[in-house]
Amino acid sequence: MTEALTINGVSLASLAYMLPDVSGLFGAPAKRGSNVVVPGRHGTVRVTRKRYDEAEYTLTFWVLGAQADGTVPGGSTAAREFYKRRDELLRILGAETLTLAFTRPDGLVLTSTCEVVDAVDFTRIGAEPLAKVAVAVRNAAAFWLESTPVNQTITGVNGTTATLTQFAAATAPMTDLTITFNGPINNPQLQHGDKFVTYGGSLTSGQQLVIAAASWQVSAGTGSAWTPDLRNITFSPGPEWISLDPTVTPFTAVLNHTTGGSASVTITGRRAYLAV
Prior knowledge:
By secondary structure, the protein is mainly beta. It folds into two domains: 4-142, Elongation Factor Tu (Ef-tu), domain 3, CATH 2.40.30.200; 148-273, Sandwich (Jelly Rolls). The chain has one helix at 78-93; strands at residues 4-7, 10-11, 17-18, 55-64, 98-103, 109-116, 121-123, 130-139, 144-146, 150-156, 160-163, 178-182, 185-186, 189-192, 195-199, 202-203, 208-212, 217-219, 233-236, 252-256, 263-269, 272-273. The strands form four sheets. Strands 1, 2, 3, 4, 5, 6, 7, 8, 9 and 22 form a ten-stranded antiparallel beta sheet that branches. A five-stranded antiparallel beta sheet has the order 10-21-12-17-18, with no helix packed on it. Strand 1 and strand 2 (10-11) form a beta hairpin.
């Protein structure tokens, strides 16, 4: 399988729109924030836990006066087709939201939600039915995400540690996670590195506690009916209740609880990447 990029479903690997180089998508976003300058002191005081800034990509590709298969329809000309393709492209780029989907050679599909942030610049020589286009787009969410969520279940007694094999391919922090504790379990806690989320309470057999880490919500999931109390959640350091950081070594998570026997938790989310 070869590399491929689409914008809102339109291929940039056809003979109508052609992206010869995808290196504009290879850059990773910078971290935002500054260290603290202390008068009279060499250097600065380092501020930790900096967050990634939004990402910007520049795409440079060609628009040709042809259909996707390279042909010119009967009764038309390459010049007419060029203007049709140009107008189609402007409609695509003028959309409120651009969904970029990149397929790696191994078949992995990564997506990002972007917007055009600068003028769309066309460069054309004379009346030739082709033009080079430069487009700057911004990914406000910073990362690329896999299209399909993965999940990993940890089962065991208090203090059970598991290597996060299902999330190991990621290169960026994963914050939009769903954590599902399965009853019976008492005072469940999920810990990853220096991060943790705890529910101070008990679940009986058949009950679930579903935690939406990024939106700060709890629910009873698909288990037996009950009403989780949001006030029983404690976490650190935030702002999301818990996240997975692929730079943590070892890349593990710990299930803590006071049940006295075995219990389980399932982590669900999409792997995140700094670049395609």
